[in-house]
Amino acid sequence: MIYSFALPAIALLARPAHGALLLAVALAGLLTPSQTAWFGLDFALGVVAFEQRDTIARAVQALPAALRPAIPILGLGLLCLPLWHRMAPIGSLLGHSPREIAVMGVGAALLVISALTLPRFAKAIGSRPCNFLGRISYGVYLLHRPLLTLLAPLVLVPTLLASKLVVIHGVTLASAALLVALVVGGSIALAVLFHRFVERPAIALGHRLAQALERALGSRR
After folding, report:
1. Same domain for 114 and 154?
2. pLDDT digit string (tens) for 114-161?
3. What's the pTM?
4. Whole-angstrom distance, CA of residue 172 vs CA of residue 179
5. In 3D, which of 36, 40, 195 has the Cα closest to residue 105?
6. How far is C-alpha 168 from the chain's CA centre?
7. Hey, how many other C-beta atoms are within 10 angstroms of the C-beta on 134?
8. Looking at the structure, do residues 165 and 110 belong to the same domain, yes or no?
9. Does 191 share its domain with 215?
10. Range of the domain at 13
């Protein structure tokens, strides 16, 4: 929500020096103790990728054709790398570090760049299932954590009597798989309702307010 309100300022900072100023501010945020500031890199990379899309597209097209498909593969790998690390026993469950957030942010930016510059990748993510998930993605983002918090204490009950199941950190794989299924399925179902009855009306209201403000400013001129 903080970054949603700050988006106009972020867009303005993305213009000087082809976005270098905004990226410098975002990287400086990684050095602070504020977790909110850490995630500024995600927004900075996304806005700069959009603002500089023509320049980026020319750079991608200048690459050898054989190397271009590696861009989304590398992006997906970087995006998932911290998550894979956390699946190991040495992984921390207390939240991402600034370095992990930076790695995931760069991975996500490479996927955005792939969507902007690689026609085959853009066609793949433009399929009906991807469009559906894209429409409800904000609802999934908002709702999955509360649903996870609600269901985890109910589902992740160690079943030590089921000795044939592998137990990780006192939780059986069966209960973990059940939790994932419930959270993913439940988040999608709730996000559909959220998109229909909350998000779309809110977007329409925002458009009306913006049009009213534009008319008011136009009349004063």
Report:
1. no
2. 998 999 999 999 899 999 999 999 999 999 999 999 998 888 765 444
3. 0.74
4. 11
5. 40
6. 28
7. 11
8. no
9. yes
10. 1-125
Among the three residues 86, 101, 125, which one is the final residue of a domain in this structure? 125
Cβ–Cβ < 8 Å for 173, 155:
no
Residue type, 157: V
Assess whether 13 and 108 both reside in one domain: yes
Domain boundary residue, one of 125, 153, 179: 125
pLDDT tens readout for residues 160-209:
444 445 555 556 788 888 999 999 999 999 999 999 999 999 999 989 99
Q: How far apart are CA 47 and CA 7, in angstroms?
A: 9
Length of the chain: 221
Considering its fold, how many domains does the chain have in total?
Answer: 2
- Axis crossing angle, helix 40-51 with helix 53-62, rounded to the nearest 10: 80
Structure tokens that stand for 173 in this block: 């794989």
Q: Based on the domain organization, do 178 and 144 belong to the same domain? A: yes
Which residues, including other chains, have CB under 8 Å from residue 71's CB and lie 6 or more apart? Answer: 60, 110, 113, 114, 117, 118
Do 56 and 141 sit in the same domain of this protein? no
